[in-house]
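Support request, please re-run this one:
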Amino acid sequence: MSRISLGDASLTNILARQGTQLRAQIQRTANEVASGRQGDLGQALRGDFSPLLAVDASLARLKSFAGNTAEAAFQTAAQQSALAGLSGLAADLGASLLRSKDMATAAQVGLFGADARGRLASAVGLVNAEAGGRAVFAGTATGTPPLGPAEDMLTALETAAAGATNAGQVADAVATWFSDPAGYAAFYQGGGPLSPSPITSGEIADLATTALDPAIRDTLHGFALAALLDRGVLGSNHVERADLAQRAGGLLQGSQDSRVDLAARIGMVEAKIESAAVRNSAEETALGILRSETGAADPYEAATRLEELRGQLESLYLVTARVSRLSLVDYLR
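Re-run finished. Output below.
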């Protein structure tokens, strides 16, 4: 005669709980087989999450560096493009102006002045260049163009040179305005230099270049001096106007070396940024692999465990079915 030691209701509850537990384990193990990840990460790490937290902290730091390198690379590339544009504007005009004193007619000097006035406006536009909505030569005042309109600059220079009667006096007055804190430095609408940007552990990118840099200031100086010819400076005195044009050409030619030096300095920063970005990317890839391996499930072990759990569940179903078929007649046999 069969004998059940527990009441049918109690046994049914026990079997139901076991079934629920087995189904939960099967679901978790099936997820491990599908995802390759441990269903219970805490158990897999034996409660020690410190290695995983360290990896996550490093990945967060690298993400911050990635943002910094992208912004810095964008800014330096825009600065290099602007400098190349300035050099392109200055090159042929400077050569033409240098020949004006002995070779150019009054009409030609006038044309040089008109050309310089247009190029000054273009040069100011290049210095006011933006990258991603940020003025790249404005220092900390990234939302403000560093320079006002070229015509405002020429008006200020005309005032500074008022009363000058020869090319030397005009040139001196313009040179004083560009070097005076109350002149070009006051015309500058940007802020102070940007702070160095961290681009990787222990390395920073120097992004301090502004429109106050001598290379930019001296280039604008040459354009502005020649552009004053188109504003009628020195009247009809062709000799002095031709002399002024030649002086402007000398300034534009002389500023070439400083532009090259500035481009080289920015180029060194660009190379540093690119190198840091490559190293950061490699480190991020390695940490990503380590992160994925932390708490990874053994697919063979998980599949084997899944089959065992399924077998246990099937056995439990058989026992449950047998218990559910018990009756008083069966019990009394």
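The mean pLDDT is 83. The CA atoms of residues 104 and 171 lie 19 Å apart.
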